[in-house]
Amino acid sequence: MTTISTRPIETAAHDRLYRYLRQQIMVGELLPGQALTLRGLAKQHGVSMTPVREALRRLVAEGALTLTASGRVSTPELSNERIEELAALRALIEPELSARALPRAHFALIDRLSAINTANAEAVAKHDAVSYIRTNLDFHRTLYLRAQSPAILAVAETVWLQLGPTMRALYGRVQRNEPPRHHRMILAALRAGDEPALRLAVRADVTNGLRHLAQRGW
Amino acid sequence: MTTISTRPIETAAHDRLYRYLRQQIMVGELLPGQALTLRGLAKQHGVSMTPVREALRRLVAEGALTLTASGRVSTPELSNERIEELAALRALIEPELSARALPRAHFALIDRLSAINTANAEAVAKHDAVSYIRTNLDFHRTLYLRAQSPAILAVAETVWLQLGPTMRALYGRVQRNEPPRHHRMILAALRAGDEPALRLAVRADVTNGLRHLAQRGW
DNA sequence: CGCGTGTGAATGTGATCACAAATCCTGCCA
DNA sequence: TGGCAGGATTTGTGATCACATTCACACGCG
């Protein structure tokens, strides 16, 4: 008589830590070059070094963190060339995701996207960098989820992860007074069912945000 | 007897294991659905479970291995939809890499590509699946390295990794009597400096190999 | 005053152990 | 004969420890 211990709810410690750090990095709560130590994170989260090591190893594998020659991990400080590459990847992948989502994008989805866009505008008004990045990514993810292409979306999210700390550092340098104007173009193309216009709007939105970045000194 | 106490230059055990398994998976030495255990790999490589765990966690993060609900790891058995997605990613990314490599593709590179293609033909003649996959990937990687775009290349290699076991399983099912004919088209486009033709040839080469796969039952 | 240097603290790596869940296998019962 | 219940084994998870290397900071020499 084994008691049905429905235990699969609670996830492993290394997995919780992974998710926590991943979210933190993606939305820009960590600045570039920030160092993370095994014992520090372990103490901070009340676990031993073992699950911390696994979580960090996973994040390093995804490019969310970089590894120094001596094994120290820190958030990445991206070079100009690296930023250009990641922008090119976004410009390559995200129009494809949007095109795949287009046939399945109904009114309810467009409404949700509009709502996210409103939240994004509020983040701009409050000069809240983290909220801005989060709502911006939510806008894209919500659209792309309709593409029903998890493998492609996973690649896109990996790119976002790598850009997280850098986007946060960028936020303070550009003068923002409105949400991305391309988001409105994306919504218009979705309503019109116009795939070429949608691809163009997504590509413009993705490359525009990162263009300032590469122009600066860095 | 000789207690070699200090070994500073050597790479870490978990890193060696990671590289070893990654190579094995990418060239198709492991079939889909193959289970890997911590203690098994540890004993097999003369290390403890700790470095094995880190290597596996890293490979899982890259999609090279899948994780069951109970934490077991095994090589992935890809669904049809997943294969289609990965093929689409290759078709999206690799033409871009080839176009970036084109301006830097000189005679020496084309010669090396031809040599790799010859080795590929030998693998076909010997019905050696692993050699076939390895030389095929070498052909692409050698070309893409010239693109000087490590981040984009890394994404491409991640896709190859995910397809490794499946490509091996596929190899036995298709009748191969010649190396990919598109490789010759790629070489011709490189010699002619024709970027549109190069993009088309790469795209055709990439999608052609995986088209059979999706058509079969799987 | 500047800079290399040495010592102590901090850090990553790997091994080992305890524990619980999952899996496998055997044998029993319908 | 078929399926299922039981226990033994396997397996992943997390904690703790020892050790070598790396880093940081302050001291001392030029």
Q: Briefly, what CATH class of the largest domain in chain A?
A: Mainly Alpha
Individual helix count of chain A: 9
Poorly predicted residue ranges of chain A: 1-9
Order of helices and strands of chain A: HEHHEEHHHHHH
CATH topology of the largest domain in chain A: Four Helix Bundle (Hemerythrin (Met), subunit A)
Protein name (chains A, B): GntR family transcriptional regulator
Keywords (chains A, B): DNA-binding, Transcription, Transcription regulation
GO molecular function (chains A, B): DNA binding; DNA-binding transcription factor activity
Domain HTH gntR-type (chains A, B): 11-77
Walk me through what this model shows.
The structure is a homodimer of 218-residue chains. With 218 residues, chain A is mainly α. Chain A folds into two domains: 13-74, Arc Repressor Mutant, subunit A, CATH 1.10.10.10; 80-215, GntR ligand-binding domain-like (Four Helix Bundle (Hemerythrin (Met), subunit A), Up-down Bundle), CATH 1.20.120. Helices cover 68% and strands 3% of the residues of chain A. Chain A contains nine helices and three strands, in the order αβααββαααααα. Chain A has helices at 13-26, 38-45, 49-61, 80-101, 107-125, 129-145, 150-171, 181-192, 195-215; strands spanning 35-36, 66-67, 73-74. Chain A has a three-stranded antiparallel beta sheet with strand order 1-3-2. In chain A, helix 4 (80-101) packs across helix 6, helix 5 packs antiparallel against helix 8 (181-192) and helix 8 (181-192) packs antiparallel against helix 9 (195-215). The longest helix of chain A is centred in the middle third of the chain and has 22 residues, at 80-101. The radius of gyration of chain A is 19 Å and the shape is globular. Chains A and B meet through helix 3, helix 4 and helix 7 of A and helix 3, helix 4 and helix 7 of B. Chain B binds a DNA duplex (30 and 30 nucleotides) through helix 2 and helix 3. Chains A, B: It comes from Thioclava indica. Chains A, B: It holds the Pfam family GntR. Chains A, B: Residues 11-77 form the HTH gntR-type domain. Chains A, B: This is GntR family transcriptional regulator. Chains A, B: GO terms for molecular function: DNA binding; DNA-binding transcription factor activity.
